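re: that complex we talked abt at group meeting.

here r the seqs, copy pasted straight from the sheet so there may be weird spacing, ignore it
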Amino acid sequence: MSLSLAIKTFFRTIRDKSFAADLSAWLERPAPVLPKPSPAPRRTAAIELLATLQREGRLVDFLQESIDGYSDAQIGAAVRDIHRDCSQALDRLFGLQSLRAEAEGESVELPATRDPGAWKLTGRVDSEASQGILRHHGWTLTRHELPAWTGSDDAAWIVAPAEVEIS
Amino acid sequence: MSDPLYSIGIDLGTTNSALAYVSLADEAPTVELLEIPQMTTATVAEHRPLLPSFLYLPTDVEREGGALQLSSVKQASGVVGQFARAQSADVPTRTVAAAKSWLCHSGVDRHQAILPWNAPEDVGKVSPVAASALYLRHLADAWNQHHPEAPFKQQQVTLTVPASFDASARDLTREAAVIAGFPADFILLEEPQAALYAWLAHRGEEWRKELHVGDMILVCDVGGGTTDFTLIAVEDRDGDLELSRLAVGNHILVGGDNMDLTLAFTVQELFKEQGHTLDAWQSVSLWHACRLAKEALLAPDGPESHPVTILGRGSKVIGGSLSVELHRDVAQKTLLEGFLPPCEITDKPQKRPASGFKQLGLPYESDTAITRHLARFLAGHTQTDAAAAKRPTHLLFNGGVFKSAALKERVRSFFEQWFPGEEAPASLSGSEDLDFSVARGAAQYGRIKQAGGVRIRGGTARAYYIGIETAGLAVPGAPRPLHALCVVPHGMEEGTSIQVPSEEIGLVVGEPMHFRFFSSARRVHDQPGLLLTRWDEDDLQETDSLEAELPAAANAEGGYVPVRIETHVTELGVLECWCASTVSDERWKLEFSVREN
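got the structure back, here u go
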């Protein structure tokens, strides 16, 4: 098939000028864009955090479940547990603390140079302002202790394993 | 060997273990907890301050999968810690739990691979000693990983045991620690004493203002699986205060886990009324939920009711969830009436055959009333005379159960009834770190040994007796009467020896000689050489037999050697019994023959 096609093409290219032009254009076309191969699965800190919140607080189950059909009381009963377990996990991993010790609504002194990562200014902002009212005290970590993954690369993207009971 | 840099205290618990340490070099060091690396799921390793005392024995496929690895457990036969604890619910036949309770159960051979109890044959079982050794080894490896500059084997190590452990259980614990690579001169310390050391360290020198000569402290230690009582007196010694351990209770296999389990049974009935039967997985979540409900409902200003929710097992977390309201009066009735019922100081624990939550194998208490065990402990010998019972002036609570203030108050309230007209004992409060105070106290104790400070004097917690069959006319069908010879008095101090005054005992040459061995926590006045001809079964407990074998070549007349018994308590608290020949200089050590059971 390839050989007969090559011979046919050879003779037609010599005889037929417009065919030769088309063929030439076709041969010089840009290579088709292939989708980039996805990076090799790697266990990232983000996956580990998600897996921890699912494992200890069932957070992924909760967010993936449609809650339309349930009464507020049903949701409330489950959320109490999810809330407690997730916040315990966050506390253990990150030791979350208020960034500012002042109560919200109180006046706070602003430093001369303020890191936009630490201060979000709203209202009549100007660089001269030396104080303002604290509207949100902010949050900060006091530690960063994510669990260490010992599983295989194949399972790196898995947030929760399938559970099978053998009877 | 270089001088130790740290004092390490290890609490080997029935359900959780912990390691605390304190520098020996610093002037005013603080006690730190070691964050112990462990698997929390099959594929995740984390650091936690508590190491659950559970061992999971993986299948061959899991073993080869390679994920179940931590540097410290690579060589071991199983996985220790949080993951194993979770597996105990999911895969109970492959999980070893409560190895410590088996360690002091003289009804089984503790060197034999019997755990998990009732597991199928293809599970590579382990012995209670081996399981305990694995937990200790994990802790030692974790230490070495964190402190490569201070090898575990060269530190001052203190390991705690229940005060109620008898000599043979202590010996087995020591054996497990030696297998785990502990330094040869590590110390065994009783848990209630460790709790008191933790309190003393917390108070600093202030304790001398809080306690006075004549005071008596009751350490009330209710752990997950066991209850342990100890009385410690404050005495005067050359004008300075001194602490002296007076008495310890018997080993009582009832604890906080029983409470949670009992409440779980109650709640399970509530679910049944709703038409839901819970499976094994749900029962575990229920158990956990009940523990939290217990603490909320028993709080002094607790709510009238508390929801107990079990989340759905599948991915439908809300749709599959079950919930009931547990009322305060139900919880109170179940727990307070079941475990801390009112009783008289002269009451004794009731002996009933089966109880609702009896696990096959371990001799769990049939009477779960901790108050009756406590009354029995305080009343001691004087079983009918309420006035002669010991009245503690201070209470020190230990164990996770007492995170609930209501339970502390409940225990305290009984003293007003038992000792009318007297002031109720004061609570020694301060360090509210109930999960870790034993490990912390043990680390402090090691430091005190090195650097000096107030110590609790105590000696042996029990008196020990050797059973001797009486010579006499044999009566067909009746065993020869047995007498008990006291060989170690209560309170025999470390580093002392006793030659027991007695008749000569004939020791047969060339074959093992067995001695039945008894102990008593209550007979505190018996002196060595005293021969008991009869005793109350509650007073003397039989423990593992002692065994000695004399080489057949020993120069002996008539096939036996006349001996007397010598006993010795080493500086490290190890009890040794020797047979000393009365005709030569030869001595033979009596060993616990726990393998023979």
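couple things i noticed - The longest helix of chain B spans residues 128-146. Confidence is low (pLDDT under 50) at residues 70-75, 353-360 of chain B.
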